[in-house]
Amino acid sequence: MKTHDPWKRFQEVAESPWPFVRAWKKNTRRKIVGHLLPDVPEEIIHAAGALPVAIEGAGVPVRLSQNQIPGYSCSHSMGALELALSGELGDFDGMVIPYVCDTTRNLFHIWTHSFPWMTNEFLRLPKRIGHPKAKEYLRAEFARFFQSMAKLTGSDNGTEELAASVELYNRSRQALRRAYEMKLEHPAVWTSERVQTVFSASLRMPRDEHLVWMDDLPWNEPVQETGSRIPIYVRGKVWDPPHILDLLDNLGLLVVEDEIVTGYRAVAQDAVGDDPLEALVTRHVATTPYTGYHQDPEQMTAAFVDRVRASGAHGVIFLNPKFCEAAGFDTPDFRAALESAQIPTLVLETSSRGYSLGQLEVRLEAFREMLASDLP
Amino acid sequence: MDPIRALKQIKQITTDYFTSAHMAKHNKKFIAYCNVFTPVEILYAMDMIPVYPENHAAILGARKMSPEVLPAAEAMGYSMDLCSYSRCDIGSIKTGVSPTWGLPKPDLLLVCNAQCGTLTKWFEVLGRMYHVPMVLIDVPHSGSGEQDPAAERYVRSQLEELVEIVQRVTGAPLDPDKLRETIRLSRKASDLWTRMLELGAMKPSPITVFDQFVSMFPIVSQRGTQAAVDFYGAMVEELEDRVARGVGALENERFRLFWDNLPIWPELRRLSDVLEKRGASVVTSIYTWAWGKLAVDESDPLADYTEQYLYTFNLHLARRIDLYSEMAKQYQLDGFLYHSNRSCKYISQDIPLLRAAVAEKTGVPGVILEADHNDPRLYTMELLERQIESFLDLLTAQKGTG
Ligand code: SF4
Ligand code: SF4
Fold it and tell me: Using CA atoms, how far apart are residues B64 and B72, in angstroms rounded to an integer?
């Protein structure tokens, strides 16, 4: 019988990856590259020989960053800045900030100004996702990004190494999808909270090692299921506040699909094809578009309703980061479209700064009651 | 001080413009909603009247009507954290409250995100409301301004596609002669506007930014028309005459200041009074300069638009520090008023670092005013006045002029 808790080390890395990352750097003498979510192709950083580490600002208590960026900025940006200002990222050699909104655009320049010793890279993601010319541009941008990362690490790695990285990350995504399915089948043990720590850890440690750790999870242990759960769908950026997953688990709300950038959305698509760069572009385009991207306005609403319907969810939670314009503009129409399709919704405008867990619980409970009374 | 006489024309110019926009269908013209960094010369040349929802919202703000419409947008679910221009626009559509009989319905929505990302999302909302085509000219923000040939190809291809789409909407091709003529008029207006802004460097300055804010309507909405050229011609003539006579906008110009960010539209009068009383002339601003370099060349306008959207308008922290430091010299500035505008994150989030860096580089201090360009519920005017007074006290002490 296993005596150790197989989830614990994932939790430790997810909560504070810094000691782990520091030790990795010392042992391997290789570079660490931080990146802000979403949609930075980790495979490219990996293929250049560095360790990609996702920086999630939400949940970080802010103090120093308040002097550098106004308080009407989202937790994601303020928290990321806080981590760097407080010295947590002292071992990082580079930082990649993707162009997803005005905030990340400004943050890149703030970052470059404040931390000039890092190699700072602005990843210019085109907004017209799906447009043929945007795909062409994205390919060129990914190629430029690969060169820039190779320059940072001093490597001359090329297509072959990139193909190997893509293959490794595909394997990791497959394993993570399997974990997500386990959550749906056995939510009493594979709770949303536990599964998310496995996802979060994958973004902050070497993927090959993460795959090995995943072998240790209780894939085949018999599970006694308790109680029925209500399937829900979540749209948002990150799990902010992080405790929300615990609340959902406790309230019997089962997230059957989500568009969270550190959640299912991160693993839904593999990068497939002979040309690894093209495969990454195709994967990017096939991934559920993040709210900052542009598509035909009417189609984007209809496609969202279709995704929710296909998931079988009985309700939708919008987990909107406070001060996030992209999410704020989409929500009213998306919500109205769901309600015309008889799908109940709950909008939570959350931020790790100044939210009350008690209040959140009350709202989630009320939503659960509403969904439960709708059940046949 | 006597007001600038030419400014009296603004009311008529605005009325004529909105009348012609509302009469568009009748005159077999089309309406495109757009933003500042869009190729309006192409639109005018193709019989599309550019209409700016941002501009309409600014008029609502300046006429103190925004509190009547903002709650309607919020009741529809649009958060108070969203840009107050967009909330005013959506609220005005919902309530019908508008100083310009509303805006005519669009035939096309055109956005260029070299400005901000907010507009794309806001126009998506309008796209779902009006069921008309929306075109985004997507400009991959070029980091710190490095050349990006792939991005140049991408932007140019979208401009070419735009011409095709406009053609599909209007049913008529682009007439190169008409485009040349529109570009010529646009360039003239832009040059005159630029000259007008440069006159702020004179001592005393013949114009304050409050006059500039009031006079911006034609450069925003009517670049490419004779009306804009005539108006700015009259403005420049009058201001040059003031300079020749040594007449300043303020009777006694004691301090020369810079206004950063958008105006606080509902408070133009109150702010200008508080400053004027202390002899503080706000002689220039980054906001009015946004229209300073919009002229394009007739030989290859698409190449010029591409260059502008990718590089010229890429206003980032490092560039702002350099630019403001140069302007401190050129305009002989005593201080900076930084409007930290919670509605326009795009141009506000770097203000704390900007202020510190500019002060360090030039020795010119600045004060941060936390406010909002169109939502008076998000700031306290008394507090802003007190901050300005204290800042002027500091400048007075520095100058040793009591
Ligand atoms: S998209 Fe929203 S949550 Fe993400 S960085 Fe931008 S403002 Fe913050
Ligand atoms: S965010 Fe700023 S630039 Fe964008 S629409 Fe609002 S006021 Fe204009």
Answer: 16
Tell me what ipTM this predicted complex has: 0.96
Tell me what pLDDT residue B295 has: 84
Note whether B349 contacts A112, CB cutoff 8 Å: no
Residue of A nearest to B131 (CA): A298
Cβ B116 under 6 angstroms from ligand 2: yes
Q: Distance (Å, rounded) from C-alpha B31 to C-alpha B333?
A: 41
State pTM to two decimals: 0.96
% of residues, chain B, pLDDT over 90: 94
Instruction: Look up tokens 């320049």; give the residue.
Output: A109
Interface membership of B144 toward A (CB under 8 Å): yes
Q: Which amino acid is at B383?
A: L
- The strand order across the sheet containing A51-55 reads A51-55, A32-36, A94-98, A119-123
Interface check A99 vs B, CB under 8 A? yes
Closest listed ligand to the CA of A79: 1
A258 Cα to the center of ligand 1, angstroms: 17
Radius of gyration of chain A (CA): 20
Q: Which residues of A touch B81 (CB under 8 A)?
A: 72, 322-323, 325, 328
Is-contact B43 B49, C-beta < 8 A?
yes
Which residues in chain A have Cβ-Cβ distances shorter than 8 Å to B370?
70
CA of residue B127 to ligand 2 center, whole Å: 18
Burial degree of B360 (CB within 10 A; 0-12, 13-18, 19+): exposed
Cα(A202)–Cα(A267) distance, integer angstroms = 11
Cβ-contact B211, B4 below 8 angstroms: yes
Convert the pLDDT of each residue in B164-197 to its tens digit: 999 999 999 999 999 999 999 999 999 999 999 9
Among all bound ligands, the one having the nearest atom to the CA of A72 is: 1
Please write the tens of the pLDDT for every residue from B269-296.
999 999 999 999 999 999 999 888 788 9
* Spatial distance between the Cα atoms of A179 and A198, rounded to a whole number of angstroms: 9
